Amino acid sequence: LDRGGVEALCRANPSSAARVIRTAVEHIGETREEIELAVNNTAQREIHLMRRYIRVFAVIAAVAPLLGLLGTVTGMIQAFREVASSGLGSGQALAPGIYKALVTTAGGLVVAIPTLMTHYWMMSRVEGFVHRIDNLVVDFVEKFRGAKAKHRQEEQGGI
């Protein structure tokens, strides 16, 4: 593919990797440092977009157990209030409050555990993308420099 073909292919593919590659292609002819800076800026924007929604999973995973704990505390308060008002220490007086405490604790954990796992899985995907983009940029710049040097040698050899 020529430069125009690569740019067209990248425009037709609305992915983060395509936007990074398109940036590199658009900066062909500039210094290695300029290409790397432009590509890194584009990659950082793409990474930010990916991570923006992943943070929601981290917040949910952190808050869910706290809500479960809040339910535990209110359930235990309910249980002890029932015991205090009835004056009895029977299981029947304690059971509804303890039930509420356990259900809310379990609910918080049921939400938090898969959400936390999803968060870490998504973060590993983003980190994998970062690693692939880094390698892609290095390969692209090196191949471009090699092609440019070969072109220069051919021009000099033809003189």
Automatic annotation (TrEMBL):
Please name one Pfam family that this protein belongs to. MotA_ExbB
User: Origin organism of this chain?
Assistant: marine metagenome
GO biological process terms, alphabetically, are: protein import
Keyword Cell membrane set for record: yes
- Segments traversing the membrane: 53-77, 97-122
- Give the family per the record: Belongs to the ExbB/TolQ family.
* Protein name stated in the entry: MotA/TolQ/ExbB proton channel domain-containing protein
Q: Which residues form the MotA/TolQ/ExbB proton channel domain?
A: 17-134
- Looking at the UniProt record for this protein, which Gene Ontology cellular component terms does it annotate, in alphabetical order? plasma membrane
Record membrane topology: Multi-pass membrane protein
**Main localization, broad class:** membrane
Sorted alphabetically, the keyword list is:
Cell membrane, Membrane, Transmembrane, Transmembrane helix
Where is this chain's protein located in or outside the cell?
Answer: Cell membrane
Q: Which InterPro entries does this chain map to?
A: ExbB/TolQ_transport, MotA_ExbB_proton_chnl
